[in-house]
Amino acid sequence: MSRRIAVLVFPGTNSEEETLRLLRDCGGTAELVHWSRAATLPSFDAYVLPGGFAYEDRIRAGAIAAHDAMMDHVILGAQAGKLVLGICNGAQILLEAGLVPGTAPVRRPTAAFTRNRPEPHFVCTHVYVKLAIEPARSVLTAALDHAALVPAWTANGEGRLAASDDHLRELQDGDHIAFVYANEDGSVDDTANPNQSALGVAGLCNREGNVLALMPHPERDAWTFNHPDRRRSAAMLAPSGGAVLFRSFVEAVVR
Amino acid sequence: MRRAVAINLKIPDNAAYTALVTLRRLGIELARLERAQIVRFDDAPDPTTLMAAVEADEALFNPNKHRVTVLDSDAPRPGEVWIVQDNDNRPVGWRLYSSPDLPADRAVLAQAAERLLCNPAIERTIFPK
């Protein structure tokens, strides 16, 4: 029996369809699991938390969802070594749940993806994220090239990593910084960072490497038609660069 | 004189209800919970003038859904914890009740803040004096 991926749908999730489609395009056996079916989650082998506004971002982005019954199962699964990928709001939930960076007890967050700067505005722009760890550091990125550059769209009002200076050093020293914002040529500087995210962080992984939280949406740059320089041709449905991360994830799940 | 106002919803506050349900799920027994946008003023006029000024500010106050209370002091009331993120003058006030008319004590406030209401990486708490 093939290994199954659950795409979690909280009240307010809004990116589940493209996430599901890309997982399937990459060869994964995936299905949507709504919050009312939380009890079915233990039967899945991996979990993807898509973007959106779970529980309307009440209190803080991800705060209520982190305590949802679905997350009880995700936390237990992650602790047992199952793979977990959170994108955008999914990433915010993983930080609120304490699964990422995972340096404190669960549900005791030590960092947050929070209000953008310099203005706390919604930022929607095309970005590149660069793999900042060795691919094998996380099983989710193991199939990527060294320093892989992944195109994505960022679409959030609260995507800036914030943590204490001491904790940021801990994230660096512990190799938790999985992805940083980069320019199209792969160079990394402040101009690539769309929201003044600390250390230019776009994505974090836990110590064990089986949980990855990524703010930008690679699934929204997964086919040629949604890349900024799309060629209006028969190739519009060809895979685009954002698919590589999902392929790596699916490969890790089925391995 | 420093003063503070609390701006509450007079329509059902879904965020407060969700927080109440979640705190109960975490084992924190509460009868009810209220949420307010707190706005602090450094050099405020008398309470009547201040309330009129707030009610005239369309960025702060919508008469269709809000009510304003001028607080007795520039500090949380009994049973209330303020959560501050970027702006010290705009905390969110969460007022917790252990029974319908009994404000929660400090220990319950601290527990609720630690378990749900405050992410210490980006926020801090202000408790009643």
Flag low-confidence runs of chain B. none
Mean pLDDT of chain A: 95
Overall helicity of chain B: 25-40%
Q: List the uncertain runs of chain A.
A: none
| Cα radius of gyration of chain B in angstroms | 15 Å
Shape of chain A: globular
Counting DSSP H or I runs of 4 or more residues, the number of helices of chain A is 5
What is the helix fraction of residues of chain A, given as a range? 10-25%
Q: Helix and strand succession of chain A?
A: EHEEHEHEEEEHEEEH
Q: What is the mean predicted local confidence, pLDDT of chain B? A: 96
Biggest sheet overview of chain A:
9 strands, mixed
Tell me what the structure shows.
The complex is a heterodimer of chains A (255) and B (129). Chain A is of the alpha/beta class and 255 residues long. In chain A, 20% of the residues lie in helices and 23% in strands. Chain A has 5 helices and 11 strands; from the N terminus they run E-H-E-E-H-E-H-E-E-E-E-H-E-E-E-H. In chain A, the strands form 2 sheets. Chain A has a 9-stranded mixed β-sheet with strand order 2-1-3-4-11-10-9-6-7, sandwiched between helices. Chain A has a two-stranded antiparallel ribbon with strand order 5-8. In chain A, helix 1 links the parallel strand 1 (4-9) and strand 2 (29-34). The two termini of chain A are 13 Å apart. The mean pLDDT of chain A is 95. By secondary structure, chain B is of the alpha+beta class. In chain B, strand 4 (80-84) and strand 5 (92-99) form a beta hairpin. The longest helix of chain B has 12 residues, at 14-25. Chain B is globular and about 40 Å long. In chain B, strands 1, 2, 3, 4, 5, 6 and 7 form a 7-stranded antiparallel β-sheet that branches. Chain A binds chain B through residues 55-56, 58-60, 63-64, 67, 96, 107, 109-112, 114-115, 120, 162-164, 167, and chain B through 14-15, 18-19, 22, 25-26, 85-86, 115-117, 119-123.
